[in-house]
TrEMBL record:
Species name: Hyphomonas atlantica
A cellular component annotation (GO) from this entry: membrane
Name recorded for this polypeptide: Twin-arginine translocase subunit TatB
Membrane topology annotation: Single-pass membrane protein
Chain segments annotated as transmembrane: 6-23
Amino acid sequence: MLPGIGFSELLLLGLAALIIVGPKDLPMMMRRIGQFVGKGRAMAREFQAAFEDIARQSELDELRKEIEDLKRENTMKEAQDDLAAFEADVNSAVMEKTSAP
């Protein structure tokens, strides 16, 4: 039910609608109100779905960025390790050449 409206208030609204609109046009008016409410609910669902898609897309973009950052960090770490190994090889080769008479 509607918040803040009890059964007696709803009954009073129904009687007022019956008196104002009349018994002949009341079903048509109720149908139009129902269609309007249905369209409003559909629009609300569509808005909520679009909002959730945007949030999901934002999370995916953030996750992609984190993955790319991790890839860059791993690539940088591998390059540093390779460079350190190369430096060690060069140093050991230089030491061998300088220590050999």
